[in-house]
Amino acid sequence: MQAVLSSTDQLALPAELRHQDNIQAGDKFEIQRIHAGEYVLKRRTKTVNNVGLVDLLLSCPEKGWFEPIEPESTDTL
Q1: Residue 76 located in a structural domain
Q2: How far lies 11's CA from each of 1, 31, 52, in Å?
Q3: Number of domains observed in the structure of the chain
Q4: Structural domain contains residue 74
Q5: pTM attached to this predicted model
Q6: What secondary structure letter does DSSP report for 11?
């Protein structure tokens, strides 16, 4: 695949790669220069703090894992 450097010095990843790897705007990458004309581009992994609420809930243990607790009242204190 080819990519072209824009007049604003930006390099866009081809759409096919973005779709295959679910690359979104704002994702971060590290670029390493191997030698003149050869580079390695690595996607930085997202931290747990970047996980959305839905993803967090979907990663919870299976249903029935949590035990309900009885509500407590301050009247008995």
Answers
A1: no
A2: 13, 12, 28
A3: 1
A4: no
A5: 0.50
A6: B
- The span from the CA of 15 to the CA of 23, in Å, is 9
Structure-block tokens of residue 15: 């759409």
Contacting residues for 9 by C-beta, under 8 A, at least 6 apart? none
Specify the residue for token string 């759409």: 15
Q: Is residue 4 part of a domain?
A: no
Query: pLDDT tens digits, the chain, 77 residues: what are they?
Result: 888 889 999 988 999 999 998 888 888 999 999 999 999 999 887 655 556 777 777 777 676 666 777 777 777 66
The amino acid present at 7, given as its one-letter code, is: S
Q: Domain containing 49: what range?
A: 15-69
> Residue 61 domain-assigned?
yes
